[in-house]
Design brief:
Two copies of one chain form a homodimer. The first copy, chain A, has 322 residues and is an alpha/beta fold. Chain A has a single domain, classed as Rossmann fold. Chain A is built from 13 helices and 14 strands. Chain A has a seven-stranded parallel beta sheet with strand order 5-2-1-9-10-13-14, with helices on both faces. In chain A, helix 1 packs across helix 13 and helix 7 runs parallel beside helix 9. The radius of gyration of chain A is 19 Å and the shape is globular. Chains A and B meet through helix 3, helix 4 and helix 5 of A and helix 3, helix 4 and helix 5 of B.
Chain lengths: 322, 322
């Protein structure tokens, strides 16, 4: 939605349907916070699958897994991805065989990919498989891949067109980015339920994820950006840029390389056709006026989410702005 | 070959090409012994792939792996299969997902299956993949799958037709066997080189493996039994039955259920169309005359192979009978 005319402050959070758009580690933190203040059945997470990759014949969905592992308490807290205490004996042995092992596959993590790939081969959709995985991990909020199609994000650099994971993990984000390609999107549809969820939501929360490689692919799924413009839900984004820097990952460099200023305002601008509220870090309070000039409300908060309390507190503040 | 007319005792072992037909754990012991007395380049192992299975989209070749792990010193000495010190974190997590986990896949072992499956998908034949795996494991004798085709052995029981591994691992050999089916053999060919190896060999050694589920599938590959009848090589089998019992596994029960006496002689009889020498355990020396009545030479030896010295000594005795 792009208006502030509906007053929903009288509605209880107990009946509020909150839909989030999520990438990986940063998003998982906020979703964990939301899961502490929103009843599970009222929380849905639409997850980027543009960073999915097929390796060793396995379908690997890093963002779906990061969110599921985080919500189930299994995530490795040091890295923000993978499984806490996982071993890497399979990967080490693959390296002995001369296999490419730049993508870090833990032994326990591998089970998720083997299981998912098996169910996909049996004909289940990625949405159905994700539900099965979440049930097994006792993840109660609804996790939905943005699409059931395989739509890997490609990074166009001066030298090559790379799969996102090749750029991100293998090349460690070093090549200069010229463009992103959200491949195979022509045939893609939003996963079942996404339209209804966004249209019926009380609020849609765009997590503090990279706008090009985490949120961008979700918005590129035919229909989803349109639903965000059409919904009566309050659409709220949390800035992934704080004080001109990305909290994690290549967001700052990507903004620069794509010709944008490295600023929370640049992110707000990317979403300005559907955003109602932009939540920026309190360090950036001086940008409030600039961002509100884009035609949205701007709110300052502590967005750093170092502790669980931080995550829950930010989630609470977001819901108050609904 | 089925004659004793050629005298090869004047030839050196250094120039003798020894070809073995091998199943899993029992065979691997004898092959290890042979590898200590035959130069690597003179030793070829044709391995049963009838117990291969596809699980989680992976091609698993238990006998090939058992022989390769044994020759490379990686095998788990307690079980005779799998990798020494392997962990099972992936399998445990698969069980949490509700996957079928009766087939014991170690984390390091899994790397072999992932790597093999990847190379097969890339279009390499199983023979080529096996060469790659052996090179990585520094296994120098030549290991050859009996065929590049996928020809799983099926076990016909009163209640169901089971994949061999379902019968062997999942059902722990409990169902009564009515028949074996070497499936998909119509289209199968011996792997490249097998005909030449058998025809040019000085000796072919049939390892003390199960005649129905380890050696039987190899003999069922179109052509192989014929090569054994035609070759000038001395064909020698080592009995898997000692004193009326199988050293390991279901050989004794299978002989009984298939209507044979549980005796070394019954095994010799199964091979009598191509066998020149049958090596039985010294506990069974009283069977020598009976077996020689089948038209072959019978030799008693210590076939138990508990220690490496036993394995090497048995290998030496076999070569002396060439």
């Amino acid at each position: 939605m792009r208006c502030q005319t509906v007053n929903r402050t009288d509605r209880s959070l107990q009946t509020t349907m909150i839909v989030t758009l999520a990438g990986g580690t940063g998003a998982a933190k906020l979703v964990l916070g939301l899961a502490h203040v929103v009843p599970s059945e009222k929380l849905a997470v639409i997850v980027n699958t543009g960073d999915d990759i097929e390796l060793f014949g396995l379908r690997i969905c890093p963002d779906l897994d990061t969110v599921a592992y985080t919500l189930s308490g299994r995530v490795n807290p040091q890295t923000g991805w993978g499984i806490h205490g996982d071993t890497f004996n399979c990967l080490t042995t693959l390296a002995d065989y001369g296999a490419e092992t730049w993508f870090r596959l833990g032994d326990r993590d591998l089970a998720t990919h083997l299981w998912r790939s098996q169910l996909l081969r049996q004909g289940l959709s990625l949405s159905e498989v994700t539900q099965r995985i979440c049930r097994a991990l006792s993840v109660t909020p609804r996790l939905i891949p943005m699409t059931d199609a395989y739509t890997p994000t490609e990074v166009v650099t001066d030298d090559a067109v790379l799969h996102l994971q090749e750029y991100f993990v293998r090349e460690r984000c070093r090549p200069v980015v010229r463009a992103f390609r959200y491949s195979n999107m022509g045939a893609a549809q939003p996963s079942p339920g996404i339209e209804e969820l966004i249209m019926a939501a009380e609020a849609v929360v765009i997590c503090p994820s990279n706008p090009f490689i985490s949120i961008g692919p979700i918005l590129a799924v035919p229909g989803i950006r349109h639903f965000l413009r059409q919904t009566a839900a309050r659409v709220i984004a949390v800035s992934p840029i704080v004080a001109g820097r990305a909290l994690k990952g290549p967001t700052a460099n990507m903004l620069r390389q794509m010709g944008h200023p490295v600023s929370a305002r640049a992110v707000a601008d990317l979403y300005c056709d559907f955003l109602d509220v932009f939540v920026l870090d309190r360090q950036d309070f001086n940008l409030i006026e600039d961002i509100e000039a884009l035609g949205m409300k701007a709110v300052a908060a502590n967005t750093l989410m170092n502790t669980l309390e931080d995550k829950v507190e930010l989630a609470r503040q977001l819901l108050e702005s609904v």
